[in-house]
Structure formats: structure tokens, C-alpha cells
Amino acid sequence: MRRTLLVLLAMLLTCATLVVPTRAAAAREVTYDRYSLMVDGRRVVLQAAEFHYFRLPSPGLWRDVLEKFKAAGFNAVSLYFSWAYHSPKSGVYDFTGVRDVDRLLRTASEAGLYVIARPGPYINAESSGGGLPAWVKTVPGRARSSEAGYQTAYREWLHRINPIIARHQVTDGGPVVLYNAENEYQVNTDAAYMQDIQDQARADGIDVPITTNDCCDGGSWSSTWATGPGAVQIPGIDDYPQSFECANPGLWGPWGEGLTERLRDDIPVFAAEYQAGAIDVGNAGYDKCRELTGPAFMKYFYKNNLVTTGATMFSYYMGYGGTNWGWLAQPNDVYTSYDYGAPITEARRLTPKYDEFKRQGYFLQAVAPLAKTDPVATPPPSDNPALTTVARANPDTGTQFVLVKHTDRAATSTDAATLDWAGHRVPVQVKGRDAHVLVAGYDLGGQRLTLSTSEIMTHAAIDGRDVAVLYGTAGSPGATVLRYGSEPRVTVLDGRVTSSYSGGDLRLDYSHEGLARVLVTGGGRRPLMLLIGTDEEAARFWRADTASGPVLVRGTELVRSASVSGDTARLVADVAGDATPMATGGATSLAARAGAGEVEVFAPPAARRLRIGTHDVRVNRTPSGSLLGSTRAPEPAPLPELTSWRARPEAPEAQPRFDDSRWTLADHTATTNPHPPKTLPVLYADDYGYHYGNVWYRGHFTATGAETTIDLNAITGLRGNYLVWLNGRYLGSAAGGVQADSGDQWTPPNPDPGPGHFAIPSGMLKPGTDNVIAVLVANMGHNDDWIADDLRFKQPRGLIGASVGGTPVTWRIQGAAGVDKIRGGLNNGGLYGERTGWHLPAHPDTSWKNADPATAPLTPGVTWYRTSFKLDLPKGHDVPIGLRFGGDPSPAYRVLIFLNGWNVGQYGGDIGPQRDFTLPAGLLNEHGLNTLALAVTAEEPVPAGPGPISLFAYGNVRVD
Ligand code: GAL
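Above: the input entities. Below: the C-alpha cells describing the complete assembly.
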């Protein structure tokens, strides 16, 4: 009842004035003003990272990723919900198992994260159909509009997903703090649709503010439709200033300076999707994407944005990218891996980008005045025009935030200058393509920070004293000035730091080297422990909150949580071995990471002992007041070799006597698809309910004997192909159509997509009797619908034209044999082996012949390989495992990889640059038997198939 009333109230408010639902005396209320979001009146700087649960089909690992977000200082996760992932056909929805989004939202809450819920209906995300189920292609009415057929379809989805989101809202004690409607919806489309999505959400109980993410530069939805129908409460902007040109990682803001615009005066500045990685459109490999969007980019662009625009709502795309398993990938821009060059790799490992997020994220969470700032004037450095400053200040506390950066943003030189600031002359030094946010006039716990030219990472009140972690570029000068009533006592415990006191200000001067420790006592304030490090030293710190206050930890791979009880500090932490080079991600990804070794804990004084997970760690008390010990390296995790492969050829469908009588008759003479068929009957796979993966066609005709060629057209999405047989004889293959595949609304549909002309060898035809054409079409994913263009989105898959010299042909079609109840509708297509379960662990393969895929020759068609292996990874360890294809792949074959029945990816010379495939725990049995099955489709004879194939570990941490 309460909900109904609230919903009605919210709807009234939404329709009338678009005011956030304000609810007096609500338990938890989400409001906002021009500065920031507020939860129960408390300002929140929202620091979110994007995560796609549908790209990590192991619910058990969701917690790991979300805890890693939290440990990096994120306080929110942004979640797309993929309609396609839950709905194999109209009216059928699955929210169980790997699709259990209730569990996802609970896990986010348990990890201490707010959620930005983004259920679309359209999500883009380089996912097949942009998240629209393929069955929507057969629905009349323009997709992403208020037209009737589509409206019925998307309302069906919203009424399933909204109630789940609604019961996890902040307003009901859950984590969902914002609801994002649609995705980069453009101005020239349909306001009634945007409004209806919101009305449906309100009707379904959504009462948190509604946002939307506007494409690129704010030039579309939110600015033009700011107040009319369809306008949302908090529009935000998406920004990808580094582009997606990973092959050229030296680029510097080719798509602009990346400053998030203020869209309205009454709402905070919201960076709804800010670049934190890239799609690998040029097949450069994700390590290059990570470099393109690495710490230098993050330092300059994120800080520039923070101080220049005063944004307080950030969502970084992606925090963790994941895997396009099954047929999840949109065909044009991505392949199996959606690693994205994100701060956390596809195999869930941490990178130097993670470290940079942590330095910045901790700062945002620790320094509260950041949530409310206005621009203020600041003098530029007096003695070097190469550097410049931009500043903001909190109008209530006067705290200043000064960004120091190069005047020429592309400058690559290191420049030094003097700042005349807050009554002091202090040195600053900025590397090329770097920027620092310096703070002045700040109540740092019980201290008063006059200024610092080191950046603040975090500070915490521990044991009646303040512990602060400051940092700067290795070798750069730093000065920190603190205010005291009388001269305090300064003890330099470590490093070289000089101090002077005058006029109430204590000034510390130093160079950033290693980790300096300065204890300041007296002076009328509680003690202060200053830890002043290089970037790398700062990144070794973790902060965790306990019931008895915050704890700071230096060392370990990751601190997930901490607690203090009695005389013991306990950490739930990951302990790494010596830095093991990563198979992908490269040595650079580990450069800054601490291996096993020192662990230091700043905890309340009652804590005299340290326990990490189930292990007691011997510790000594240091002069810094901390506990210092060391961790043990984890046990090694040996992996088996992959041997005993067995093979079996398939494709009985190619043979003339194959019984296809139970296949679907392809006899439609009309379609709702906006693309007219080249010939009749309509052969579009989606029109017959076959939406994902391979489809077979068999065409029967009574030959006159005069036929000379079989002329086909197929559209598969980029990188697809098709293979053709006549009366059991292989005629050859052709590339699937790329009709405006990566194109746009300005490119007219190609009249002759994916053509294949197959000459009929003499003597092949049997005049007067039944002749059989068999065609195997390897469809890729479905096009996105980025610009709400049905011609692009509804582009058919499968054959779109077929003729045999005018002789009538009766066609039948066969795709996937139903929907896998556990793995879902995107797991399988219609290969014979898939239809008969050859990919499933239980399939008996003892009659299969011994053959190693790496050495056995391939004939055109489909060959399956299977092997099994046992694992017994050390208990309590996290050892992400990958499957590696050594050797050079041939463009003549493509390989579907099944792990225990799950389609974990596609490999091949024409498919993409990927050679390593993650086998996520959950799908992988880490303590028992596993089955691998490979379906290899060859277009032509190949002397040797894919391989050598091996297992490898991306890393090994003890998750204590
Ligand atoms: C954005 C879009 C995201 C994703 C991203 C590129 O424009 O909203 O869904 O596609 O681009 O990775």
C-alpha cells in the first residue's frame, strides 16, 4: 500500500514538474541539488564502475568483482540488464541461475555498493542486438519507438525487470540509487517512448531518480528535451575522449578534452559513461586498449574533468569487461573477449589502472568537501607559463581544490613551477600528460591542512590520531603545510623530510621517494601520522572500515574487508605469490603490484595480533604504531596437459539422404522485416524462430538438367560465412554479407549482400528426381540499434536469396534445438553436434577416434574434438584458468569452444586476434572433471587444425 501511494505520488510529480520524489520522513531518501546526489540528506560523490553480469556467467564470481570495485574506492556499480539474455522468445523470461539478478543486486548490496540500474530496454554495450532479443526483429513497429508492436514487447520486459529492481532500491533499504532509462537515445526519435519507459518504471514501483546517458557531447536527448515529455530527472553525458583506436595507444584525446558538460542548473554534473577502457575495433589486442586508456589518461582526463566541471557523479565504463560467451557479441566491433582494457582484466586480475582508480577513488571518498564546489579564481604558477591551474572551492568550508596541469594539454615535458598559494610559495612539478589535484584549507580529521602539493589519497582517524596517505610522482618535490596553535613536535620516522614552523604553520618539505613517515604531535591537536609516498607506494595501501573504525593496510594483493575483535585485527585479503607474469595483460600489468611479503596494518591499539583469513601472521609493533608482518606465498597450482583428444566428423545434413522431414518448412511469402528478400520464399532465420549461431538449410528441387549454378546471398554479420553442398558434394564457401553491417542510416542497403555463385559440376545433377542443396550458415551476432534504425537492427541473418536457374526449390531450415535450460538461449546454434549434445559433458565419446586437433588434417565441413581433464586447484586459492591456442590459426577454420557444455568463445584466424580464452570458475570445475569440446568448421582442406592447445593460469592468489 505504502508503495502504491508512493508510486502514485511519484508519477504525479514526474508528470507535473519532474521533481525528484521527496518523501518526508522516508527511511532512506534520494535527493539532489545542483552539486550532488544525497542519500538521507548526506552528500554522496558517486563513483561507479560498469559491470555486465551477463558477461560473467558465474554468479559465484560476481562477489569477487564487486568486492574489487569496492576495494578500489568505488561506491557504486552501474549495471546494464540485458533483455536478450533473459528472454529467448516473446513471453518467456528466465531470472534463475546465471540470470539471477536478484542475487546480483543482493551481492552488490553486500559489497557495500550503490547500484545504477540500467535496464534499457536498449543497452548497446556491443552486445548482440544491443540487448534487444533477436525475436524483437520479427515484431512489427520500429524498435526503440512507441510504435505498437515494439511497445507491447518492451513493456513486457520492463514489467519483468522493473519489479526486481524496485525491491532493491535505496528507498527500501537496497542498493539501487538511480534508474537509467534507455541508452544514448537521440533527439530525432520518440519522446513518447522515453516518457513511457519512465511511466512504466514509476508504475512498477521505481521511486529513485531517473537518469539517462546522453551520447557523446550532450547534443542530443537531454539538452533538447530537457523539460518536455521524455525528459528525465538527471540526464548525464557519455564521453570517450581517447577513442577506440587501440592500435595507436599514444593518442591523446582525439575525441576531445572529455569535459562533462553541465546540462542543467538544478542537477549535478553527471558523467554517465566515462571512458575507462576501449573496444578493440582494430583487433590490436586489449593490452593496447589498456595502454590507450592507462594511468596517464586517467590522471589527466579524470582529474581535469573533476575540477573543471565539478562533476560529482561518475560512472566509468568498464570497471570489468568480461566475456562475450555464447552468441552474446555484436558482430561488428568485438570478438569473444570483452576485456575492454579495463582496470580489472577479463580473468579478474588487477592492473596499474586499478591502482590509479584506487588513488583517485579513495580521495573522492575521503575528502567530503568535494561534493559541493563552485569554480573559483586561482593564480597560475608565477614562474612557468607551461603550467596552469584551475580551481574550485567548497562554499561552506572554503576548502580549495587546485588542478595543476600543462597549459598545452598535449605537452610531454616535465615542468616545475612555484605556486603562490594560501600564503606560501610552494614547488609543483608535473610530468607531461599528467595533472594533480591539490587541496588547501581542509579539516583533515583533527588537523587543519593549510595546503599540500602532494595529492591526498586518504586519511583515517585510527587510535585517536590521524593517519594520512599523501603521494606524488617519484622524484618530484613536495610541500605540506599544517596549522597549529603552537609549535608541534615533528619526528621523521622514515625518509628525508625537513620541517619549519612559523606564524602558526608547520611546513614540511621533501621529495617523493619511497615512503616517508612523519609523526607530528603536540601543537594543540591530536597526533598525526603522515605517510608520504610515491604513486606506487600509495597504491599499496588499502582502507577498510570496521565496527571499531577504519583500518589501513599496506601490502597484500587486495584487502576485501577487515574487522577488529579483542586483541586481533582480521583481514579478508588476497595474498599473491611472487609476481607471476600474466599470459595476457603482460608484465606491465603487474609492474606496480606487490607480491607476497610485507604486510603492515594501522589498526586500533587494542589489536596486537593479525590474522589474515585462516592464517595467523606474526607481527611486531613498528615505531609508526602499526603492526608489521609478512605473508606466505600461495602454494603452486600445477595444471594438467590436454591430451587424449578424440574426434568425430559431422554434418550428415550435407548428405542427400539425410532425413529433414522434421525441419521447419521455410515457406513464408512475406515478412515484417524492412529488408525485402531477394527471392521467395523468405529464408530469414529469425522469421522461423532460429535466432543464434549456425543454421542449416536444405533445398530440394527436381532438376531439369539445365541448371548450371546455385546463386545464393547470405547475411551473417561481419566475420560470418557459409558452406554449400549439392547432393553431398562440397561446392565451396562464401563470406556472409556485410550489408551496411558497420554502416549507418545513410548507407543504402546493399542489393547483393554476401553473394555466392556455385557452379554445378557436370554430372552432379540427377534430372527429373530430387536433388538436395545443403547450406550451413555461420551467423554471427545481431547488429546493434545505436541510432534506432530498423534497417540496421533488423538486418536478417541466414539466406536472403537463393536460386537454381529458376527451378523451384522447397526449403527447410534448422537452427538450435530448443533453449538450454541452464545455459540459456544464447549458448547454442544449430550444428548437428549441438543439436545432439556432443558439447555436453555426459555425451559418450568412447567410439570417437583418437586425433589431436593440432595435427589432424581437416576436411571442409564440421569436425568435433573432445577431451577431458581433471583439476584439483589448491583450496582457498583463486587461480583463474585460460585455454590457449598456440600456433597460427588458419583463416580457413573457425572453432566454437565448449567447456562443460558452455560455449565460452569462438577462435579462428578470421574471427579476431584472440588466442587465450578464460574458463571461469563455476563453469570450470576446479576440483574435478571437466570436458572440453571443440566444433571446428573448415571452409577448405587444412593440413592441420587448431593448436597446440593448453591450459594456463593467469595468476594465483590465496583468498584468505
Ligand atoms: C557507449 C554505449 C555503451 C558502449 C560504449 C562503447 O556509447 O552507451 O553501451 O557501447 O559506447 O563501448
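Note for the figure: Residues 536 and 688 are 57 Å apart (CA to CA).
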